[in-house]
Backbone:
């Protein structure tokens, strides 16, 4: 396992982050704990959860698994989505952030969260209020670093500028959806993060399972993608373009004697600017397969082929800017 610093910080995280969204639900508590322990035995130190995963069960299971090894772990959680019926039971107001972190700390059975993330932008709350509250959490020791997720580039840039202006701690990372079948972040986010040294920890690196090769052009009979809603629904994933990408993933896997899941993760691991993909595994078998993404190098030619087939179409203003690039 290799380690990377997360954005503009001294926090060392493993090159893979283990996502825990299914823990305590489709992944039993016993399997979830076994998975976390196996991940740590193989050098993994970075775990991602959220207050809303399985209505808080995911945090409880993670808390049990790391109870005796807390300081070894870089524990990431999030707040923003609704957790109750009253109007302040969601969002990132000062009130909700203070309530949400205390509830997460109780479920996680710990007194600090290493990376506390805003799950998605909140149009209702001034970003100054959110950043001041997050800065107070860091000062109090309840959170050690802060990050964000599912932001537009302008929202991240505005947040960084407010932090710098008001001398609050900055977001050190962003957690966007990013994979061979979801490259929207190539438009503006990746270059912003490189410019500002913000770590990128992509979610759904396997397209929710699409890139593992288990689905065909026919409607699948089992697996998460049969869900009708969500980013990893069959409706959104099963496009002609995505199946063309999948063909190249499968062919590359055959050539390299790896599996499609390992190839899809490896493309991200070798992508400049990506710190640590957050992969999910519903079973221990899937986990073992996905961990096979580390410890080898994908040849440049194979990486380029995957990059080309999955690239966004050439768009303005990138097209225009590239045309007039200076040769320095
Ligand atoms: N910030 C956000 O808004 C946000 C949103 C979503 C997720 N996340 C984070 O990102 C993590 C990963 O997200 P994700 O679960 O959508 O990502 P993913 O890694 O793209 O998909 C994981 C799913 O794919 C299937 N799968 C995984 N490995 C497989 C293999 N080797 N063979 C066959 N199927 C395999 C399993 O689904 P089946 O159950 O169908 O087998 C598994 O649950 C989450 O746990 C969470 O921590 C964050």
Residues:
């Amino acid at each position: 396992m290799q380690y990377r610093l997360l954005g503009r910080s001294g926090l060392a995280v493993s090159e893979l982050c283990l996502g825990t969204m299914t823990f305590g639900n489709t992944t039993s508590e016993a399997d979830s704990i076994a998975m976390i322990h196996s991940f740590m035995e193989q050098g993994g130190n970075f775990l991602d959860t959220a207050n809303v995963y399985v209505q808080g069960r995911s945090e409880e299971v993670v808390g049990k698994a790391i109870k005796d090894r807390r300081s070894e772990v870089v524990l990431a959680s999030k707040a923003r989505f609704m957790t109750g019926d009253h109007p302040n039971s969601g969002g990132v107001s000062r009130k909700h952030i203070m309530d949400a972190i205390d509830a997460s700390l109780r479920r996680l059975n710990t007194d600090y969260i290493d990376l506390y993330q805003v799950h998605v932008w909140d149009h209702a709350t001034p970003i100054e209020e959110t950043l001041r509250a997050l800065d107070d959490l860091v000062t109090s020791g309840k959170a050690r670093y802060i990050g964000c997720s599912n932001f537009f580039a302008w929202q991240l840039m505005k947040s960084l500028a407010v932090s710098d202006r008001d001398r609050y701690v900055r977001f050190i990372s962003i957690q966007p959806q990013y994979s061979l079948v979801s490259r929207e972040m190539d438009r503006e986010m990746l270059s912003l993060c490189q410019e500002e040294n913000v770590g990128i920890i992509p979610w759904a690196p396997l397209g929710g399972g699409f890139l593992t090769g288990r689905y065909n052009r026919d409607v699948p009979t089992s697996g998460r993608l049969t869900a009708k809603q969500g980013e990893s629904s069959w409706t959104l994933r099963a496009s002609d373009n995505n199946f063309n990408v999948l063909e190249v993933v499968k062919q590359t896997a055959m050539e390299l004697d790896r599996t499609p899941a390992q190839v899809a993760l490896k493309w991200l691991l070798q992508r400049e600017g990506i710190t640590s993909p957050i992969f999910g595994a519903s079973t221990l078998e899937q986990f073992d397969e996905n961990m096979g993404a580390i410890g080898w190098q994908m040849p440049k030619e194979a990486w380029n082929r995957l990059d080309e087939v999955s690239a966004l179409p050439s768009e303005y203003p990138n097209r225009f800017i590239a045309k007039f690039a200076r040769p320095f």
